[in-house]
Design goal:
By secondary structure, this protein is an alpha+beta fold. The chain is built from 6 helices and 16 strands. It has a 6-stranded antiparallel β-barrel with strand order 1-10-13-12-11-14. The protein has a 4-stranded antiparallel sheet with strand order 2-9-7-4, with no helix packed on it. A 4-stranded antiparallel sheet has the order 6-5-3-8, with no helix packed on it. Keywords: Coiled coil, Membrane, Transmembrane, Transmembrane helix.
């Protein structure tokens, strides 16, 4: 047996106490556990991570949820879609009618009147120009005073001003007719109608009022994560990121990403230069090339919540435990503090490699 009385023969006090065998076994077990724990903390590597939460968004602003507005004032006379309906680009969504059903006809009649006025004014201006020519001839022969010539020239200028004013009025009428003619609201691109916000024919809408919300289909998606400002100096484009999508079963081991289950890989695309309203910094994460594809819709939709871990440098488990107990920031490499530049590894469980980062972000 490994525990005999001769092992404690040199310890007179302990021998006199004669501790029971279970106590001696427990002591050896505790000693072995302490040695194993110290060895674990000193020798086992740990990948530091910067944790953040966020959501899935569309990379292209045109692919994000957008409002469909009324182009002209009036009332929604007819709806061509319902909530949740798929539409193609150019499909009809709603038709808006003016309170006056004869408005376009009256505008067209007013335009025809202006056309007649413009034609009559131009004809009168041609006659006035001929009068100017005759007056110039008579004035040159001394048969007409200069005042009559100036009056004829003024009349031509007056006719020109009337023609210009009438043309401007006609242009305004053309704009109004065109606006009133565009009473049909169409889908801007392929997508889905999320909800109808407009009322029925008894509800008035103004120009620019939101009548429906629309979301394009199959958008190029990225993830926006919000991370603590203490970690931002060590985050740069290309940093690997592990993602856990809402509703997708996954188990994440923060320090050992290689043994995580159900996680998806990404990489940092961009970091905001200023903090958001919540005091955190936004980090855009895109899908990592060559890695497993992110879940498609409808499994992960736009706006779904995401939890992410940005992979940092590899340290010992003991250092990481000490850092967490003291609430210290992530490890700053000595080279970054001494030279103002940062060269960091991509983290354990990844392809490794190095990346350069300016010292302005490592201060």
């Amino acid at each position: 047996m490994p525990f005999r009385d001769e092992h404690i023969v040199h310890f007179k006090t302990l021998q006199s106490l004669r501790p029971p065998r279970p106590a001696r076994v427990l002591g050896w077990m505790l000693l072995t556990a302490m040695i194993a724990a110290i060895a674990f903390l000193l020798l086992v590597p740990w990948v530091q991570t910067s944790t953040g939460t966020g959501s899935v968004i569309a990379l292209d602003p045109r692919d994000r949820v957008q409002n469909i507005t009324a182009l002209v004032p009036g009332r929604v006379e007819e709806w061509y879609v319902t909530d949740g309906e798929l539409v193609k680009k150019g499909d009809r969504i709603a038709r808006i009618a003016d309170n006056d059903p004869n408005l376009i006809a009256r505008l067209q009649a007013e335009r025809a009147q202006l056309d007649a006025e413009i034609a009559a004014t131009r004809q009168a201006m041609d006659v006035a120009r001929r009068d100017v020519g005759r007056m110039e001839q008579l004035y040159g022969e001394g048969l007409a005073p200069r005042r009559d010539l100036e009056l004829a020239q003024i009349k031509v200028a007056d006719y020109g001003a009337k023609v210009a004013k009438s043309l401007a009025d006609r242009n305004r009428l053309d704009i109004n007719i065109k606006r009133q003619s565009v009473q049909m609201v169409h889908a801007p691109r392929d997508g889905r109608i999320l909800r109808i916000l407009g009322g029925d024919s008894a509800t008035m809408v103004k120009e620019g009022d939101v009548i429906a919300t629309f979301a394009p289909e199959q958008a190029v998606r990225v993830v926006e994560l919000y991370v603590d400002g203490r970690d931002v100096p060590l985050i740069y484009p290309g940093r690997p990121v592990r993602l856990e999508f809402e509703g997708w079963p996954a188990i994440q081991f923060s320090g050992w990403p290689s043994v995580a289950v159900g996680m998806f890989d990404g990489q940092v695309r961009a970091i905001d230069v200023s903090a958001s309203a919540n005091g955190l910094f936004r980090v855009l994460v895109e899908q990592k090339p060559g890695a497993r594809s992110w879940p498609n819709e409808p499994f992960v939709r736009l706006g779904a919540k995401v939890r992410g871990w940005v992979m940092m440098d590899t340290v010992s488990s003991g250092y990481e435990l000490w850092r967490l107990l003291n609430d210290f920031p992530l490890q700053y490499p000595v080279s970054a503090l001494d030279t103002g530049t940062y060269t960091g590894s991509a983290g354990a469980g990844t392809s490794g490699g190095s990346a350069q980062k300016e010292g302005g972000n490592a201060k």
